[in-house]
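worker-03 picked up job from queue 'complexes'. Input manifest follows; two sequence lines, order preserved.
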Amino acid sequence: MTSMTTPGIVPGRLQADDYARNFDDLYPDFEPHEAMVAADRCYFCHDAPCITACPTEIDIPLFIRQIQAGQPEAAGKTIFDQNILGGMCARVCPTETLCEGACVREMAEGQPVEIGRLQRYATDTLMAKGIHPYERAAPTGRRVAVVGAGPAGLACAHGLARHGHDVVMFEARPRPGGLNEYGIAAYKTPHGFAQDEVEWILQIGGITLRHGMALGRDITLEALREEFDAVFLGMGLAGVNALGTEGDDREGVRDAVEFIAELRQTQDLSTLPVGRHVVVIGGGMTAVDAAVQSRLLGAEHVTMVYRRGRESMSASDYELNHAATEGVRIITDAMPVAVHGNGAVREVEFAYTRQGPNGLEPTDDTFRLPADQLFRAIGQRLDGAPEELELERGKIAVSDTGRTSLRRVWAGGDCTGGGEDLTVTAVAQGRDAAADIHTQLMG
Amino acid sequence: MADLRSEFLGVKSPNPFWLASAPPTDKEYNVVRAFKAGWGGVVWKTLGLDPHVVNVNGPRYGAIWGADRRLLGLNNIELITDRPLDVNLREIKKVKRDWPDRAMIVSLMVPCDEESWKTILPMVEDTGADAVELNFGCPHGMSERGMGSAVGQVPEYIEMVARWCKAHTRMPVIVKLTPNIADIRHPARAAKAGGADAVSLINTINSITSVDLDNFSPEPMIDGKGTHGGYCGPAVRPIALNMVAEIARDPETHGLPISGIGGVTTWRDAAEFLALGAQNVQVCTAAMTYGFGIIKELTAGLSLYLDQKGMTLSDLQGRAVPNVTDWQHLNLNYVTKARIDQDLCIKCGRCFAACEDTSHQAISMSPERVFEVIDAECVACNLCVNVCPVENCITMERLPAGTVDERTGEVVRDEHGDWTQHPNNPMASAAE
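worker-03 finished. Artifact:
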């Protein structure tokens, strides 16, 4: 019988109902009374710091006051006015570094208003009623291509469609949603929310979705520019950074993003294989999501190893604490130097690092971790960007409103240089690009 | 532990906390539970003449709530006791016999004719009750029949009924006053003129707590309609405190014993009523919200406070009355300015919004969200203090005499100076 201690990469390490429990909502939705109690804690600050901290500048005190006043649907509308993916952001935003980190009650008592959960309560209430609170303007006859149906593309497409433009979205994957569908831990967005949200967004009308259309493979920027009045690029980062370590091509070594995507698309998680000893290399959200979900699938030992100190990890304290609570061991200041094994990975050798004259360097102090599965989560990169686009540090260079170096081509989200690679940032960029595209098209 | 034994009109009770005439004192079962819990006395729910009244068979109470559904205000459309008179009298007699150390006051409401009062008073006297309280307060239902506040709103009626009662019983007579009146001093004076031994106040305030916005009916709703009910609970306390103080400091009623009623929820509320001249307090809504167990906090809290202050109960009674004055006597040379403790400030900016939008533009806000008082604009209104969510973060501090008030450019004077002496007052007397 397969269990947590079964060697190798195998499925079904847990009992059937463990999976449902492990991958259920990390934080269930507020009950109405809980929401009222949480909302009552908001001080309705003047020029509130939480708004400033939100990349989409949601009027947080207003929506919370609307919950207090018994109208969560109106609160939802306030959120969607600024962020059409407010439902997903409520689930995946690192609120402790954004709105909740800025909340004055965080300063006052170390206990911020639970803005994220209140936002979810408001948006879920409105969406559960099947209300789409926006109407499409009269058709303008203008056509815009949006490449990538992730958060940036969806926000842009919705904004454009509202203005009456016709939008065609080109999505490389079989399903829309981008990282919301393929790249986020399952317990953050269970019950098919990513797809429900896309469907809800598309209710605006005027948006055509074409699947299996990858830029550079099935479509070219040149052709899109010819066919459409404007183009928005929001295809994210398809490339994955390599380890460049000896043995990194052994069986059992894999990109974390691919593992997460597979997990998200697996209906029956008891069929998804996972190692007994899992090692994840990296210090970001992807690393945390891969590590935690490995544990939740029944891996006995999961270790995250990051080459710098904890303060340099891009995963938030909240995420790291969550990982630790789930039993993930976190080792910092160590880098892989070799992947050992005979065909398949058996163990990974690490060296502790130090700051040398030319930057980070390995020391002679090494250790080995047993591993039958190794995930690379050391960052993603933009692969195959159209040559004619100007890049900046490997990503598409854009203005504040998402204009690229090419006329009538905008871009936003992870494939561009601005802001952090967060869902909420992508939404803001897609939204702002839509506004700029509209101005340009109608000007 | 401070001695809380209390005496009101010669009626002794182990503490100054009585349960007010209301549902909690409607029958033996409740009252015995209250006495077991430690209540000092009760005012038995208002008796009337048979045939006894009936109540509605739908909701009797409406409410408003604060955060976390904390009950702030309650209203009711319940009438006086809906049990036969003899049942109540029998129970009162039994409870008084079983609990001789507790105060047993009986609330009464009968039609406004001498015969009715003459009939019921001996019956009550026969129970061994300590005193009667005349219910001239209920604003709903009974007032439509010429009783309750219909009497309490006419000082002449109060005087007349009080006189009848004094003539027909040897028991002390307390007159319970309605707040649904322009000036509370007039009914209090009338009660005194009629020979009443004391007043108790306030009874409930006419109110509609809410409106059902689907059915367009006031709450509580009875078959699609509602009526005004009597409002009580913490929300009414400020109104009650003022009315108690007005009677306590009125030269015509000064010294008339007062039983304070209106939103007493904690020991502190009780202490405030006592300081403003009440000799004891009556409690209802807090007990109806949390049960009789609150008496432990009320007694322990008041006792601890008195110990900390080194005061006796009688030291506290009326202690604040001399400091309740008219506006015209307030010292205009008392100049204060708001001061913000930057270490306590959590940068919510509510003081700024309040001052900038609705007051005197006397708080500045820096890009780093540092909020500072502009003395040249601050009129010391206290709004910032009141809206600040952090206690003691903003305080009012007095400018010492001799310093210049930047707002007026005038030197702060040491001596008292009020409106009666102010040059802008056409009626001013010379400020010699």
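worker-03 released lock.
The mean pLDDT of chain B is 96.
Chain B has 13 helices and 22 strands.
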